[in-house]
Amino acid sequence: MLENDSWFAIVNPQSANGNTKKRWPEYSKRLIKGGYRLDFAYTTEPGDATRITQRKLKEGYTHIMAVGGDGTMNEVVNGFFSNGQLINPEAELALFSHGTGGDLIRTLLISRGIESFLDTLGRGHKRLIDVGEVLFQDEQGQQTQRYFLNVADVGLGGETVARVNKQSKLLGGKVSFLIGSVLSILRYRNKFMSCKIDGKLVFEGRLNSIMVANGRYIGGGMMIAPHAELDDGLFDVVILGDFSKLMLLRHLPKLYKGTHLEIPGVTVHRGRSVVITSIEKALLDIDGEQPGQAPLKFSLHPQALCLWG
Ligand SMILES: Nc1ncnc2c1ncn2[C@@H]1O[C@H](COP(=O)(O)OP(=O)(O)OP(=O)(O)O)[C@@H](O)[C@H]1O
């Protein structure tokens, strides 16, 4: 019989360059000592966190803990859904960030480390946050659906993530992403895309990238959507126009600071549904993973998920 405050932790042992596997035994002991009933499973491969989450929610767990980086958190959020529906609308999620990047927790102002995580649990503060959904083509050309809490983007970011995820992140998420960004900027060619928000065409032409943001940060600390709110029922859509390589490199520091919105050619829109098409291959990035490409159809589920923190 499950106690109704039992937590199930889904732990990606490979996150933080394998450091999570070394540290989790100590962390789990600390959580149990802190009074939490806790079971856990290690993921064994990409996609496993989604399957484990689905299984545990169906078994009756109502408190899920995601332990890993942004990719793990994204997979766990996807596991809250099955056949387009929340498995249990009452179920709750806590994020123990232990990856290299940590972009989602930046918007949530959650700190890293076991003691901060225990503080978050101890405070018992929960909030309902919006969940983004995107339909896209996967690598095999199949129509696929994914959910996300943070940011999805198409264009330069997709190519950067594809590059960064192939290399080791031993230098840390921010440095790896910065190096990957610079290499990608040098090789990337702006693409011809169109973007409709809530049925209205807001952009058609050559552009660098489009970010569909629920959270604020991507790429290990770039504040790409400084005004995005996780619970306002709207995406912030940031479009980076037809920038030259030189101009992008020059303005890169502004992306980290969130002061890029003032650059001519950057536009921001808000809405609940976003449709993006591209006549060239344009890669999708969702929460630091690169699962497919345009055309993309986004919709928002307002305040659909209960999150601790
Ligand atoms: N057992 C496993 N073996 C190999 N890869 C795994 C395993 N479990 C999960 N993964 C994959 O590891 C990838 C990276 O995980 P995650 O994003 O959590 O960590 P990270 O890369 O260290 O952090 P961040 O994304 O915040 O930089 C995810 O795409 C996930 O699918």
Automatic annotation (TrEMBL):
InterPro entries: ATP-NAD_kinase_N (IPR017438), Diacylglycerol/lipid_kinase (IPR005218), Diacylglycerol_kinase_cat_dom (IPR001206), Lipid_Phosphate_FormReg (IPR050187), NAD/diacylglycerol_kinase_sf (IPR016064), YegS/DAGK_C (IPR045540)
GO BP terms: phospholipid biosynthetic process
Gene Ontology MF terms: ATP binding; kinase activity; metal ion binding
Domain DAGKc span(s) in chain numbering: 2-138
UniProt entry keywords in alphabetical sequence: ATP-binding, Kinase, Lipid biosynthesis, Lipid metabolism, Magnesium, Metal-binding, Nucleotide-binding, Phospholipid biosynthesis, Phospholipid metabolism, Transferase
Record-level GO cellular component terms: plasma membrane
Cofactor (UniProt): Mg(2+)
Domain of life: Bacteria
PROSITE patterns linked to this entry: DAGK
PANTHER family registered for this protein in UniProt: LIPID KINASE YEGS, SPHINGOSINE KINASE
Protein family: Belongs to the diacylglycerol/lipid kinase family.
Record-given protein name: Diacylglycerol kinase family lipid kinase
Organism: Desulfosporosinus fructosivorans
Lineage: Bacteria, Bacillati, Bacillota, Clostridia, Eubacteriales
